[in-house]
Amino acid sequence: MNNYRKLITLDEFIFQREKDFAYSSGELSGLLRDIALASKIVNREVNKAGLVTEILGSAGTHNSTGDDQKKLDVFANDQFLSALKVSGECCGIASEESEEYIPFTEHQNAKYVVNLDPLDGSSNIDVNVSIGTIFSIFRRVSLSGPCVAEDFLQKGTQQVAAGYVIYGSSTMMVFTTGNGVNGFTLDPSVGEFFLSHPDIRIPGKGKVYSVNQGNYINFPEPIRRYIDWCTTEDKPTGRPYSFRYIGSMVADFHRNMIQGGIYMYPPVAPSNKGKLRLLFECNPLAFIAEQAGGKASNGEIPVMEIEPTELHQRLPVYIGSAEMVDKAEEMLRKSKMVEKV
Ligand code: AHM
Ligand code: MG
């Protein structure tokens, strides 16, 4: 028999929060429950990935930004779409896997919209490495009728809730509704998420930097200098830092949330663009980072202050422990000043 801490299920927690913070007429709670349900179904399939050939490999299709879609990407997208559509608590979703947002015309009076990356870290699906789901919930800005693009293209500061599910050594759902960050671990034997990580706080600084170091020569010079700084020996600041990079943003971010660290996806030559998406990856994780005491920046301004112009907008990102993000920003800023002189 396992010794559990005090057992608080996700449902009990959401119900309690609803009362304490009066955060909705029940619709937001319903949305969080829908996401949890879909994630359990996805989790069930992820756990069979090595056994069942129908869910491994490429679906033979590409998403809107040209990435190869894995069968599990498509499966996860379908699960979240149908869980959110059936319950009627949002009037539409935008997904990393679909070019356009999807209005739910049968629920056009619902007041929320959801931005979603159903399965992030696709390249890791087939090799049994942690992957994740990322979500972000907004109150619509259009007043009635079918949802419109502006409902999805809101600044991150307008998020009502955001979170991720990590399918890792255990499956966890971590989310915020703007009152701190809480983590729930799935007990697969009873099919429930239990509160396991109350009020997560990201350490102010850490000893880990996470970046695709293989791109080093194609990073801007200040980023190369920041990486060199991370790897330089300096006892008082605990350097050299350790380097950890899984290639699943949720997994790298989650580790850094718990232990402290910085995750970066800088611009890469020759396109000199970032890879990650503002609406589906960066805004939700930025909301979580800030709610846990961390930071998220595009190198110049906070991620959540960026005005979105398109659904699949990409950006450079530096996210995690506040001191480490500050340092990266400082080095980027200094080099801009030198350029100007
Ligand atoms: P995806 O949404 O197509 O899965 O891409 C996002 C992922 C992140 O999870 C991860 O950190 C990054 O891409 C890895 O990219 P790279 O292989 O270029 O380092
Ligand atoms: Mg993704």
What attributes does this structure have?
five-stranded mixed beta sheet; binds magnesium ion; eight-stranded mixed beta sheet; alpha+beta; 24% strand; D-Maltodextrin-Binding Protein, domain 2; 31% helix; Fructose-1,6-Bisphosphatase, Chain A, domain 1; 341 residues
Secondary structure topology:
Layout: H1 10-21, H2 27-46, E1 58-62, E2 68-70, H3 71-87, E3 90-95, E4 102-103, E5 112-120, E6 131-139, H4 149-152, E7 159-167, E8 171-176, E9 181-187, E10 192-197, E11 208-210, H5 221-230, E12 242-243, H6 249-259, E13 262-265, E14 276-277, H7 278-291, E15 295-297, E16 314-315, E17 317-320, H8 322-340
Question: Can you walk through the features of this model?
Answer:
The chain folds into two domains: 196 residues, Fructose-1,6-Bisphosphatase, Chain A, domain 1, CATH 3.30.540; 133 residues, 3-Layer(aba) Sandwich (D-Maltodextrin-Binding Protein, domain 2), CATH 3.40.190.80. It has eight helices and 17 strands. The strands form four sheets. The chain has an eight-stranded mixed sheet, with helices on both faces. The protein has a five-stranded mixed sheet with strand order 12-11-13-17-15, with helices on both faces. The longest helix has 20 residues. The structure holds 2,5-anhydro-1,6-di-O-phosphono-D-mannitol and magnesium ion. The site of 2,5-anhydro-1,6-di-O-phosphono-D-mannitol (AHM) has 12 residues, from strand 5.
